[in-house]
Known about the structure:
Blueprint (H helix, E strand, L loop, with lengths): L19 H28 L3 H29 L2 H28 L12 H16 L1 H7 L6 H30 L2 H20 L5 H20 L4 E2 L2 E8 L4 E7 L2 E6 L2 E7 L17 H4 L8 E5 L5 H9 L3 E6 L2 H10 L8 E5 L2 H7 L4 E6 L14 H9 L1 E13 L7 H11 L4 E6 L8 E8 L7 H10 L7 H4 L3 E2 L16 H5 L10 E2 L26 E2 L19
Parallel strand pairs: 6-7, 6-9, 7-8, 9-10
Antiparallel strand pairs: 1-2, 2-3, 3-4, 4-5, 10-12, 11-12, 11-13, 14-15
Helix pairs in contact: 1-2, 1-3, 1-4, 1-5, 1-6, 1-7, 2-4, 2-5, 3-4, 3-7, 3-8, 5-6, 7-8
Amino acid sequence: MADPSPVSTPAAVLDGRVSKPEAAVFVSGVASMGLEILAGRIIAPQFGSSIYTWGTIIGVFLAALSAGYHRGGKLATEEATERRLARLLLGTAVWVALLVFAGDLLLRSTVAFPLPSRVASLPAVVLLFGPPTYLLGFISPYGAELSRKEGLGRASGHVYAVGTIGSIVGAFGTTYFLIPSLGVDAIGLVFGLLLVATAAVLLLPSPSRDSILAVVGVLVVLVAAFSSGAAGVAPEGQVVYQTQTPYQQLEVIDSGDTRTLYLDGQRHSAMDLSDPNRHVFSYTRYFHLPYLFADDPDDIDRVLFIGGGGFTGPKRFVEEYDATVDVVEIDPEVIDVAKRYFAVEESEQLRIHNDDGRRYLRNTNETYDLIVLDAYKKDKVPFQLTTREFMELSNDRLSEDGMVFANVISAPSGPASRFYRAEYATMDAVYPNVYSFPTAGGSGIIQNIEMVATKDAAVVTEETLRDRNARRDIGIDLSAEIDDYRVEEDVGDAPILRDDYAPVDALLDPMVGQRYVIDEAGSVENASAGSDGGGDGDDPEDEGDRERVEPVPLESAPAEPALPLDD
């Protein structure tokens, strides 16, 4: 143990029971675990939030803490003082300020490393979170050296217990209070201010002039870094609204006449401000295909959407069809934003449920004619909505001739098609017929692939769809979409996903860092291909007037690709 001195004595206490070094250990635990959870939110827009990303985050934090423990333990006997503890906390706060001010820039600077997709996030996690976590690792051995406990064992055991309690507080506090209430930058500011405040307490009761200047300087840097990030402008356009939900980072951004919902920095759904019910993204036009697969489209009376997002599909269904539409969305903030910014109004025809999709299906007694599964992400898919058991549950909740429509993000073939082929195999194991419609051409391109699974054993051919499209007035001409018709896919060795074995992260892994293409629909949509629609077939508008959005690598444009496109 270090000899007591005016600077390092642990006899100075905060409340008569907890010494100042112990308080520093507690705060270091809060900050380290809080930053670890926050890292997932910061890294996700560039690298996704798969099991590989989280494994990297956990591994880097443990490695950095271990290095700090080791180095701090070697220096503690000679250098452990309350003043040095304060310096470590201030240094950590400075790095947090850097994360708040330039975290996105630092994140983007790491994407060029030629690493396998599974470990692509490693440089970013090391650069952004290695240094502050390493500094926090010094706190516990310093605290043990300054502890009032008799004996090395008791001192170290007590200090690590205090640090662990701090980590528990940081984990629960960040998860249940900070993330649902504040944005990423604001949470960083909270941790920075906590570190500065603790450093200030450690310097009392007789701080030197340099110490006061250091505390004030770091405080100013923190506030300046936070203020600089609140301009309300993003490269994609004007930020109308942004928040951190319990599930993801959410932004509403206006660019011209288009309002786009971004989740975890990736385009999720879009609305034409001058025509709120128009399909902006071409893949949402495919949502109407079940009205051609049905023997009688008027038999589709009850529709369930699992996944809400910007509610493009549900809004259009309510406008076009005499059907009751239920929407299940797990994120309450997404529901609120859809109502405030995407012209969504609940009614007797449109009912919204804040729930998990599988739980809702398990508990409901309703029977649906069509279930639209629109809750998949490109980089993170809720596995419980992909398995054979889930498909069997959906089958049980469908009417005799019901259908499941699934919006999958994958490639039709090639290495990046692994998830699509597995999902096709899984649906095919439950439903008599499964059809698919790639929405952006090219066999190896990552895109939205729309899948239709029917309980009817009779195969609906491409010719039948064309005939029905010509005769039926379903509110939209799907001639171009029918061109993408595929049936009886060769899934190769793709596994059938089960509740006890659904390696979704491994199946999604080949898509990490790959281009994701979204086609945009034209500004004018023909009402129908039939006689009531007025289309003559010569105007390109009659086929949706597709406009290809230039594909951009995920690494350079985090707002471009794939969320659970819950449109």
